[in-house]
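Field notebook, page 397. I keep forgetting to write these up properly, so this time I am using the form the group agreed on. The chain and the ligand, glycine, are recorded exactly as supplied. Prediction of the bound pose follows.
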Amino acid sequence: MKKNLFRLTVVLVTVIMCITSCSLFQSEFDKRVNHALDYSVMQLKKSAAAIENPLQFARSGNPDGTWRTTDMYGWTSGHFPGCLWYAWEYSKDPSLKAAAIKWTEALEPVKDYTGNHDVGFMIYCSYGNGYRLTHNESYVPVIVKAAESLSTRYTRPVGLIQSWNSNDRWKYPVIIDNMMNLELIFFAAKHGGFSELYLIAEEHALNTMKNHVREDGSTFHVVDYDPETGAVRAKNTAQGYADDSTWSRGQAWGLYGFTMTYRETKNPVFLRTAQKLADFYIEHLPEDYVPYWDFFAPNIPNEKRDTSAGAIAASGLLELSTLVSDKAVSKKYYRTALNILNSLCSPEYLTEGTNSPGILQHAVGSIPHNVEVDVSLIYGDYYFLEALLRYKRGIKN
Ligand code: GLY
């Protein structure tokens, strides 16, 4: 009897301690999130004032504390207005709304651009968020036209949207990042775009699943195809360490992209793929949950981190946690996303106290090209804000 009472007391004390430490984590975490969002609002207001020109879009932090900018055809052009939309969504500061509109509407000519696959990033992060938040109907035809332009890069018999144009090395390169551009197409398919759009996006995802995803849930960065036969010519990397390694941002693009594709199609193969990628990603994280730039970079732990990959994965995992039915698995994705965000909101990764114009530091554009190494990147900031707002909107587990 006494023994049982003792056991019961131990169980009760343990439960109370767990609940207390969980809620302490939660309230500390909420403070960090709010602080990071307040800080982001301040950074973005400063950035909009400093850049001023609506034809220049923040891209990466320069050592002197200014932004390296891009014109509207750079692949990151939509992320700056996207950040402004998120900052407005959080703060309701009218100057941020005005800035978001200014840099979004400057991208209107991109709707006709067919020079690469990045139109999805450019137009969906900008116009897509603008439409989500304001229901401005004049944004819909821009998004639809952009999706139709992007779909011109889809050909048979390959059955995929070509990412980059052919060059000395590749004939029909498709990169894992391209999964992200499908969201634009799914939107257009539901808003009056031509009828094949949905099938193009779905087929692109099915073929990416077949040829980019390895058995263990890791991913190739670039798969090159023969445009005449549709056969795979090569599986390589451009921004990762090696052809057979796993570039962490590519893995994050895939995780996020397959999650979104499952949301849009409800085809369970995409959910299974998203989970495979997520499980691989989670298993290869270091202690603080912020990945090295490549999971197999040779000198880990003396390699650069990539906070942009962390931010993309956090946002993707938050959504994935809402789509899986197994409660324990859902919790695993949710807790991992919060752990990533908890690290990213810390002084180790937030730019506060540095001269960077961005929000997150320690991101990496491309180590093999020695471009934008260990800097702030606007797309890292974009997915960081998206993840923080997804959390605040109340994705609960
Ligand atoms: N989509 C290009 C990159 O992730 O660097």
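OBSERVATIONS:
- The longest strand covers residues 57-61.
- The beta strands are 57-61, 67-70, 154-155, 160-161, 173-175, 222-225, 232-236, 363-366, 371-375.
FOLLOW-UP: compare against the apo run.
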